[in-house]
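New here. Invent one.

***
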Amino acid sequence: MKRIAGIFAALLMALNFMAPAAARAVTAEETDTVSVYVDCGEGVSLDYNEAEFALSLTPMYGMYRIEKSKTLTLTASFEEGWTFSSEFSSFFSAHPERVTVTENADGSVVFVFSAVKGDFLTKDELGTVGIYATPAELPKLNITTGIAFSQITKEEWVDASFTLTLGTRRFESGNYEGTGAVKGRGNTSWGQPKKPYSIKLSSKASLLDIPKTKKYAIIPSWSDESRLRNYMAYKSALLLAGIDYVPKCEFVEAYFNGVYNGIYLLVERVDIEKSKINISEASADDLTGGYFIEKDIDGKIDFDADQWFDCPYWANQSKDYFVLKTPEPDDETLRAQMLAYLTDYMQALHGAVMGTSGESYDKYVDTPSWADFIIFQELAKNIDGNLKTSCYLEKRSQDDRLYMTAPWDFDLAFGNPACTWDNADYTHNDYYDCPDAQSASDFMVINSSCPWFDKLYDDQEDFRSALQERYAGYRETLIPEMFRNLHEGAAYLAAAMPRDEAKWNKDFSAGYEYLASWLSSRIDWLDGVWLDEAETIDLDFALNKTGGTLHFETSGSYPFRGVVKDGRVAAQSGNAGVNSSDSFVSITLQMQAGETLSFDYKVSTESNYDYFTFTVNGDEIISFAGERDWTTYTFKATQAGSYTFKWNFNKDYSVAGGSDCVWLDNVDYSGDTGLLGDVNGDGEVNMQDALLIVRFSMRLDELPLPQNGDVNGDGAVDSKDALLIVRFVMGLGELPGRRTEA
């Protein structure tokens, strides 16, 4: 052993005489035992050993590699009135081949996950294990008026009585009966078949445990097939540490004058109240605040009735205005004083943010709330979240800073296919930096459509750093919560949804599946731009089937790269968002007749225009544009010869769709792929190979044939592999898993 150690030391010393080369990827961190958190919704109880519900994992490539095989088992039981939701529960969903689910005669369900050494789990997969149930009945809200609902307008309140009865879920506030008034609400949404309404109770009351208030709204989410966008947004945004107030909400089935009208989201209307925006209103004695302000645009402003005031801010297609929502003083002189103060204040803020006044932006900008607002609007890719409309701000007394508050209106967010426009305008912004609302890439609110956000992000490094740091924290809290709310909310609606679908002809399951897929792709894109540069994933490792040693070529301005996708390490095309471009990867093999090459591919592109193609010796085998989940294809050689395989993603001159990319994984060749340990390609395993691996592990060199370097099969190429080669060359051991003799 001393002799081996001496030779190995000599290899290390030899490095001092060699010039450094390109750096290699970061190696894996230390192995740790990680507890698996299991979420469950109401109506579910879990029986499992929490102390043993853990796995031995090593962080690698932004994922976790399982180091010890283990079986995890839990049993879920369901309360009366609740049934297991198999469609919307999530139990290691990226590894269905490792999961068994057994539904027992007594209604309980047993879940088993067989963790296998060498498999990978994503952080999201570990953080969103959730068992959810569906209630037999939702709460029912009956609104009775003296006129037909078709006669109700947005302008006039109509007297109404309200009856709210609980469904399967128990709320402490209980049932409700009372009086008040109702009127229409919304802009575009008011012209849709399933209309939204504002509710004003005669006296404050808590409905479905929402804090006591007189002011509610019922939102139909007509444009949202999933019906879950607003619900997921409001429930999840409660974890935004910088936003003091987020509206509370719950689902109801609404009846108008006794006639069923579908599922609505009951939500408290935004206002200055102790349980909402808890600030003192401005007065004649204190014009500095507090003020509750809405950002709006020309076309939505009632210039005679609204308390509007001007600002140099103008980025949208129609003129931008701010509206003072509260207070609403009866004294016209006081109102004029307030609006004059706010006009001057907004001009000062604008000058500081845009860098034209000489004042520092942070005199006027509350960084935590602004950063959180931007993060959440970008997560949602909300086309109205760029300070266009339905964006709320608060100005506090004796405080120069402006605070973002009350995230609102996400019907058209989260890649909604119904949103077919963008914020581009030749007159008021740069036009070309304003993306479509459907693709999962690009910034929606950090661009010229919102000059304040764009300026802060581009020119203020401390603001940008604070935003990225907060996003990294929310990656562990807020984002898993978004998925949990999505799955649990879908399960909660499942039994009631067929009635809504029958009335309004909407496909709930398709809407849910699209939303879940889009959100995953959106987070992948944001991770790439906001998280610290992740460990580089070797392209060969990403493309090869586990244990494979094929070597691939990618080139051009937009090469394929290794990524984490759907719980697997895969390769992704590199030209998302780049019009008139190609991204390709290829390999050439000498094949015998009957040998095969198989691979998995996934496509998310603009349908009919941006194509994924697979060619063999220039002949097109696959051509597809649109949405296609993981699919396996196998090519079989008809005769011996050289075969060049090329996978390409071509984007045309405009528009993007879906995630705007393709993914490849599990490329598997049935023939011989080379000599394990021969990393320099000379056909032998010798000391030169060991030396190259040492240099590689010290980030001093690259390997000509990295696919042959993982001698011990642990998923990494490092000094352990070099030592095994040294032992082999000296005749002191064999190479584990050697395919051929040296």
About this structure: The two ends are 23 Å apart (CA to CA). The CA atoms of residues 393 and 404 lie 5 Å apart. Residues 1-5, 12-28, 738-742 have pLDDT under 50 and may be disordered.
